[in-house]
Amino acid sequence: MLKTYNEKRENIKEEVLFIGNNVVDALESSLKILKSDDISALKEIDLSVKKLSNKSNEIDNLIVTTLALYSPEAKDLREMVSYLKITNELIRAASNVKGFIKIFRKAFSEDLNTNTILEFTIPLHKSALLSLRTAISMLDEENDSHTEEKYHRVIVEESKAADLYAMVEKNILKLISKNLELSKEYFDTLSSLRRLERTADRASSIASLALFAHVGGDIMQS
């Protein structure tokens, strides 16, 4: 019975990582495109939130079935509960990434002050990517001290993303006041960047849940 439970546990973890890696891959691809200054190429990124949501539902059903069939010990139970919540956070992250890619591509144009926008967008994107990639890597971490180190790394990047968003918001609002005819494009750009900042928030929640799975305590989510 133990062998069967461990097999299901590994399967669940792999499926959760599959969702997470899909979102990270989309972030990595969009960052490369931003750096190449070929914004139109964002349309080539394939990130289906619907497919990932279906996968998330399958994982949740598998978790519930596993909990019903077995009586996992405290640490394993924490892990299963964490996965139930992490799948939801990953779908929210996927939705934010999808929203960023779609809205930013449509709003961004040479009519805008592209240098100012990209000056903050690229480091904000890097923080969102690093925070989410690190949070997901915690799911495959066996060492508790390394898990805690990665958790603090995620929190630092999430805080950095919030600060960068605040700075870009201030600068874009200044640009709007000088170019009212482009206010919609600037507001849409700002809306897309807000989704990047929220992606880092979701990474923070995933990191908190992963930490809970490893060392216990309270589940703290942003």
UniProtKB/TrEMBL annotation:
Superkingdom field: Bacteria
Pfam families per UniProt: PhoU (PF01895)
GO-annotated biological processes: intracellular phosphate ion homeostasis; negative regulation of phosphate metabolic process
Residue ranges constituting the PhoU domain according to the UniProt record: 19-95, 126-209
Family: Belongs to the PhoU family.
Classification via PANTHER family: PHOSPHATE-SPECIFIC TRANSPORT SYSTEM ACCESSORY PROTEIN PHOU
Protein name, per record: PhoU family transcriptional regulator
